[in-house]
Amino acid sequence: MTTQKKHTVTLIPGDGIGPEVTDAVVRILEATKVGFEWERYAAGAEAFEKYKEYIPKDLYDSIERNKLALKGPVTTPIGGGFASINVTLRKKFELFANFRPIKNLPGLETRYPGVDLVIVRENTEGEYVGIEHEVVPGVVESIKIITEKGSTRIAKFAFEYARKHHRKKIHAIHKANIMKMSDGLFLKCAREVSKGYPEITYGEHIIDNTCMQLVMNPYQYDTLLLENLYGDIVSDLCAAFVGGLGLVPGANLGADAAIFEAVHGSAPDIAGKNIANPTALLQSAVLMLHHIDEHAAAEQVQRAIEKVYSEKKTLTRDVGGKSGTREFADAIIQAIEEGA
Fold first, then answer.
1. Which partner from 86, 89, 120, 255 sits 20 to 30 angstroms from 229, CA to CA?
2. Which of these, 245, 340, 311, lies nearest to 108 by C-alpha position?
3. Which CATH architecture fits 111-242?
4. Quick one: which of 311, 301, 313, 309 has its CA closest to 340?
5. Is 0.90 surpassed by the pTM of this model?
6. Tell me: the pLDDT tens digits for 105-117?
């Protein structure tokens, strides 16, 4: 499989296990013979040490120029420190759609076999706008923002995806029984958009009930449409159905740019030990390949992943194997070369 086109990609290895899993994924992608040029940049604490900026201007410029980035995990301090790199980049480039497919890998036993869900999360509004202030000592006010533009835009994304990929059902997830204006506006927009897609069944569930229903029977759902905070929580919950955050892909998509990323943490306790699992970032790279219309390569990598998991010989420890990060990547590359 060859291509004449070169794809220039901004590469953000991240920290902790990020550089290890990123290097593994880059090796695998290059084994597809798709032409890549990588512009590598640090972000977060590492970038601050070097440049006194958490997101260097050169990194912003690279994404602006390439419209495409692959990103490893970056640590976000809890309760202080610098702002989330993920959230900052999503806002900067208007990456309004967070897209996470949740699907079992063959050969990996879980409590919920055969799960096939799509999580579509609004990525720029809600509680994550980060507008907070202390009213008086001991009292903090946090503002949630929902707009008609943002809600309509993410609903159209979900329904267009469902139509293109022959998904049958979308549920909008909300708490409009309590937050009648904000979540009510989100539902109003989703309902209006749904009218243009009569072939797709539309439903609405309250967020707390949805979490219970998912744990009881995830098979009743197909595509979930959620506001920012709800989507963040539910997408992690659903990842547990298929083996955890170390396995599921993530994409942040906008009208002009896209960032594909591992959704798990940076796991500094195992960094540098050659035991991290690169599957999440690798499956995110598969989404990236589809995004840049390298569909044959995307399918080849996905088949190689499924072959290696089915054989169970070279899996990492987190999924019951004994192999390291590099050995797992070598097995994927071998499967690609053998025409998996």
1. 255
2. 311
3. 3-Layer(aba) Sandwich (3.40)
4. 301
5. yes
6. 999 999 999 999 9
